[in-house]
Amino acid sequence: MGWLAGVLILFFGLMASIALHELGHFSFAKLFRVRTTQFMVGFGPTLWSRHKGETEYGVKWIPLGGYIRMIGMLPPRKGDASGQVRQISTGPWQGLIESARGAALEEVRPGDEDRVFYAKKWWQKLTIMFAGPAMNLLLAVIFFAILLMGIGTLTPQPVISTVEKCAIPANSKLTDCPQGYTPTPAAAVGLKPGDRILSFGGEKVDEYAELQAMIRDSGGRTVAMEVDRGGQRIPLQVPIASNKMYDLEDNQKVVTVGFLGITPLQERERKGPVAVADHMAELTAHTAGALIRLPQKMVGVWEAAFGGEKRDPNGPIGVVGVSRLGGEIAASPQPVLDKVEMFILLLGSLNLAVGLFNLIPLLPLDGGHMAGALLEAIKKFFARLRGRPDPGYVDVAKALPVTYVMAVVLIVMGGLLIYADLVNPIRFGAG
Question: Could you give the domains of the chain?
Answer without folding.
Answer: 155-269 (2.30.42.10)
